[in-house]
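[Q] Does anyone have a clean structure-token version of this?
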Amino acid sequence: MKKSQDNSNYVEKNKIYYMDCIKLLNKLKEQNIEVDLIITDPPYNISRKNNFKTIGRSGIDFGEWDKDFNQLSWLDGISNVLSKNGSILIFNDWKNMGIISRKLEFEGFEIKDLIRWIKPAPMPRNTNRRYVTDFEFILWATKKGAKWTFNKEKNKYYLKPEFICSPPGTTRIHPTEKPEKLIEDLINIHSNKGDLILDLFSGSGVISVTADKLDRYFIACEKNKAYYEESIKRLKKNYPKPAFNHLGNKWRMINELIGNFPKKNIDNFVEPFAGSAIVTSSYKSAKKYWLNDSDNFLSSLLEYLLNNDWNIILNNTKKIIKKYNLPVKEFRKYNTEYYALRNSFNKSKKIEELFVLVLYGFNQQIRFNSKNEFNIPVGKFCWNNYQEKKIKKFVENCKDKKIETTSKDFYDFVLWATNNLCSDKTLFYFDPPYLLSNATYNSSWTNNCEDKLIKCLKILLDKNYKWCLSNVIESKGKTNDLLIKLINENKDKIKWKCISDINYKNSNYQRTSKSKEDIEILIWGNYE
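[A] Here you go.
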């Protein structure tokens, strides 16, 4: 595949970058990207050697990153990346607040307030000779003339500029990590759902993770590799894993995928290929969700998971595991009890038995023979606390969502949706079997199926429905010419990019037969 234009410098939403903040700021300025809120926690330059062991505290030395940091250079031209009605919130030591305030005023900002973070359990100090410091400061500023966001709760007459919150415990990633509750309050007050938040000193990633939980976009950077890697892991944990590992599920790239979806003005989220429903479980922005899969048993299984309390599902699962003496905690190579359960399900067709069969089945596949009998052999699986927590989180993530499940041919389902759901507030996400893939679960997907898919996408383009598609466009020298043609014929309405950290400019698709790598992409239509 030939790059149409190198996109290695293109800044994407919902991503923490491993780079210096000045470099990221320059990229944002070059690409004219504006954010709605900057909330960040730069080094304070307070690290020093002390000997406070007698009062239960060692020296304050966070590392070289907190020494000789230039408090002002990163603020050069900062107004260029903040929207006209945006806010900037900067954590820092009180000794630095004066020079930071003057710098912001030079950059065209007005200082609105000095917010106090009050700690119920401050760090120990020599109480006979010093006050015990139980607070940190956050500077709030806006551009001159801004109509800034300030979401005060209606039942409160006013808000004091202070937040009482304990610091994170011993499980913190970063020595100066801020509590998630504090960050949550600040984000809720100073931004709205769907806004874009910038953090230039990511550290533990708490600002990015909290922004994501609150249905905001984020862009962040961290130049310390260890903290960067830990923050990426933390961000991944923010999303539920599938209750069962349906082959081809999108959990491994869910953050990048959700970051590509619109977060405002979406009433209906529609999945014609529901799979494990991990995308519906992770996407928060819609008012109602419509799941479809042509496999009746898969649709019934999803309905079981989405319409029951997790306690009921786990109790049912444990009873079946105990009844059939299925492996718990340790895998058994010869698990003949599994086949007794399989025989029972093929007679009863109880959906709770199907769920356990899928969990213990080979690759957790769902497959039935011509006699409508489940015929997947036993796989490598054992029930444990990890599996229990995974199912609980998946079900909990869906419990407050309005979700409808159906089982139709995907083409018929799309036609039904276009006749019943308004175009301006509906988003379709397609994750069909990949035409170029050799995986067994894709074996029934033919050129005719791909042609029907293209027809669906054209209908949505013509009727101005927003849609996004995951697919492989090139694999082992083969190309998906139907998708390539669709992209090239609709350049004004369709954008695309490579996923999994392989980035190309969202423009014309070009290819070369010399490429042997798998190129997985997102394609989307009728939205930016």
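[Q] Thanks! Anything notable?
[A] The chain has 15 helices and 16 strands.
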